[in-house]
Amino acid sequence: MKDYFDNAPAKGPEGDLRGFDPEFTDIVDYILRITYRIWEGKQVGLCHDYYSEDCPVYTLGGYVEGAEAVMQNTLKTLSGYPDRTLHADNIIWGGDDETGYHSSHLICSNMTNLGPNEFGPATGKRVQIQVIAHCVCKGNKIVEEWLVRDNYSLAEQLGYEPLEVASELAQKPLDPSGKFAKWLVSEHKRVSASGRERVAYPSVAEDRAAFIETALHNIWNARMLGDCNLVYAENARLHASARDDLEGVTNISRFYMEILGAMPDAKISADYSCVNSMNDSDPHAAVRWVIAGHHTGNGRWGEATGTPLVILGESHYRFEDGKVVEEWLVFDELAVLTQVQRARLAQAASQE
């Protein structure tokens, strides 16, 4: 018997994950149950059981480190959305118990804003957003995490104008010597060093992960946008952050062009991919990626500022007959807009 209340549903028999509590059947069961215990079960103190004390958590809106910081952020979120639920649309995973398991957890989060939120006072509005939490798990703990959340849609659903929210967020000081600012600079430098030469496609049947990594490189870095027709089925659907669903390969390629139009020198780095899915009816793949470039084009984020931009994101893909028929792409576009607005404020200050 546990020494705390636990209403998390169990998946099945005990597993043999080395270094993990025997109650967990596999890594999917581990992620599902600890997420439920902390959020729906409100056992927030379990963050100290399931996060390492030095666990870095990377988001495009900020950086935190350690179980205590994760616990405090969880409490802040729950105070604003006490009924928050996190439905696992999919968990795609890779790795092992020796090097660490990677889990890409696609979440549909439903919640009601009943308390102060990160943008202002309670609105009473019911919202739904997509999140992907990419965790590295070893020894029964999460030791590293990358978190992407559709905060642009969240702001809109709460009744805020995203540009106004980004302008307010941009006014908060960003310490250039702090870990978050240094991480943004280092990521921009790392990704910008990626090459642009085309790469031959591996067989999608033999290696879906390598195939999708190659596709991202060729489309983004080599500028072979026509390769969307090789990668996506003609009637494919893209669920992208802050946008209505895009239907068909033509509209999906326009999404790529929209981002590249604002960042013509952008490059992408596919940093981790995996293919083992909790939904085994169709082949899947997940990729964690970073895009870096400069805001030198007018478009979705307004008049060009020339500022360096970093976009942290993650995608889930579903395949049929060797092509992507559905993609879930999540990134924090509100944080991207905040980077742009921070540059505008700096430029305005320099002209005074």
Automatic annotation (TrEMBL):
It holds the Pfam family SnoaL. InterPro entries: Cyclase_SnoaL-like, NTF2-like_dom_sf. This is Ester cyclase.
